[in-house]
Specification:
The chain is built from 4 helices and no strands. By secondary structure, it is mainly alpha-helical.
């Protein structure tokens, strides 16, 4: 028949039961919701905020990243909570690394003082020329 959708299997009766693609997709989404539903996003954000002394926006971003990681891992069949915890730990490590770098650069600039600024300006001018 020309009006039949080509991506659907040939069948004389409508799809019923476990072979229905819509039911399969609904079952997968229900399983994802069940796995991710156990994650307390507010608790993740609050714990991240206390541990790293960051703003509420950054804590919310960490919680969102944890939820996304949980969704990705649940879709592949892994544990969502383990992935969420791993993502939050990685974000905390990245934040600590950036803080250490900022502190190092500030200390170096303070040590070099005015002379260091003159040297950096000379290097910038030589690069621009």
């Amino acid at each position: 028949r020309p009006d039949r959708l080509l991506h659907l299997p040939r069948s004389k009766e409508p799809l019923i039961g476990h072979k229905d693609p819509a039911l399969k997709k609904a079952a997968r989404l229900a399983a994802l919701a069940k796995n991710v539903g156990d994650i307390d996003v507010e608790a993740i954000a609050e714990a991240y905020r206390k541990e790293t002394a960051c703003s509420g926006i950054e804590a919310a971003a960490a919680a969102a990243a944890a939820l996304n990681a949980a969704l990705r891992s649940s879709a592949s069949g892994d544990s969502g909570t383990a992935a969420a915890e791993r993502e939050v730990r990685e974000m905390a490590k990245r934040r600590a690394r950036v803080e250490r770098l900022d502190n190092f650069l500030a200390e170096r600039a303070a040590e070099e003082g005015e002379l260091g600024e003159v040297k950096r300006e000379a290097v910038r001018e030589s690069l621009e020329a």
